[in-house]
Amino acid sequence: MIVDDSVTARSVLIKIVAGEDDLEVVEVAGTAEEAIEKLKQVRVDLILLDLEMPGMGGLRAMPQILELSRGARVLVNSALTEKGAKATLSALSMGAADTLLKPRPGKFDDAYRANLIEKIRVIGSALSRVEPASFELSDPPARPAASRGRAQVIGIGASTGGIHALTQMLKSLPKGLGVPILVTQHLPASFMQVFARQLELAYDGEAVVAEDGMPLRADRILIAPGEAHMGVRRGSDDVVVAALSHDKASSGCLPSVDPLFASMAECFGDRALGVVLSGMGRDGAIGAKQIHEVGGVIIAQDQESSAVWGMPRAVAEAGIAAAVETPDKIGARIAEMADPSAWR
């Protein structure tokens, strides 16, 4: 379903999608209100949604659209996604799978077409699975009795669909968790300050974009800036601080989850807990293996709740995930495992 108030944009989008043999536009709508009514009658796999439209608009309509979507994914395709970071991140935190900057009329070039089709296929692939993937948990898996009070630091990696999952997970954490949380989310640098403010709304603590040498603190979230990898290192007086770098990551991502997890393994050993949330590709798998090899714990988001089960799948199928669960259950497990004693 294509939801856009611009007749020109709707026509171009229909032409782009219809040009692919395996894709079909089954419905169009010029307003969010119209989309809501049509979703009551028709079932779709993916909703291409503009945010800035007359009437209630895409952002205000997002909860109703998701409620009526019956599992369809939402791809935000809006001019707001470049300058309107707040609106875009709000849509992602509500449950949109991904975003794409909609060009101005006459600027729908080949690069945009290729990017749009790739995102539709990747997000849509999550809905076309016939059977769940098979995997084995790490041996031994993390048991509550054995892992309680073990983790001194929590590292989280996410990409496509990860903001919604991260928000859900943070909301399920108890107040005063007592350990630092480190987040690498694939986002442009211009979005990071707004992203930090959004995480503060979901979590009982401070969230800041990391700077090199910034100390880790209990109940503070440090976020990798969009233009650098974030890791950790031990500074003077054995204080653990953020370490930013610009080295090329094997995943090709910037920021990448691998340097975060690798540095956690080095600094915290078996006291490190890594979480891999929804995202395409395999970023985080190499670093997760390093945490696993030093006795730390890796938890992955489950297939059903992930917008794109790429990054979590990589660690699950590698046999290094101690648990594969929904974001709220991951939050509960983090609460069991957190060890605040090192930060008092």
TrEMBL record:
Gene3D superfamilies, per this entry?
3.40.50.2300, Methylesterase CheB, C-terminal domain
Which CDD domains does the annotation name? CheB_Rec, REC_CheB-like
Might you give the EC number(s) for this enzyme? 3.1.1.61
- Would the keyword Cytoplasm turn up in this protein's UniProt record? no
Q: Which GO terms describe its biological process?
A: chemotaxis; methylation
Q: Mind listing the GO molecular function terms for this protein?
A: methyltransferase activity; phosphorelay response regulator activity; protein-glutamate methylesterase activity
Q: Please state every residue range assigned to the domain named CheB-type methylesterase.
A: 144-341
CC annotations in GO: cytoplasm
Q: Which InterPro entries match?
A: CheB-like, CheB_C, CheY-like_superfamily, Sig_transdc_resp-reg_Me-estase, Sig_transdc_resp-reg_receiver
- Annotated catalytic residues: 159, 186, 283
**Name under which the protein is recorded:** protein-glutamate methylesterase
Residues that bear 4-aspartylphosphate: 50
Q: Which residues form the Response regulatory domain?
A: 1-117
Against PROSITE patterns, the record matches this protein to: CHEB (PS50122), RESPONSE_REGULATORY (PS50110)
List the keywords (alphabetical): Chemotaxis, Hydrolase, Methyltransferase, Phosphoprotein, Transferase
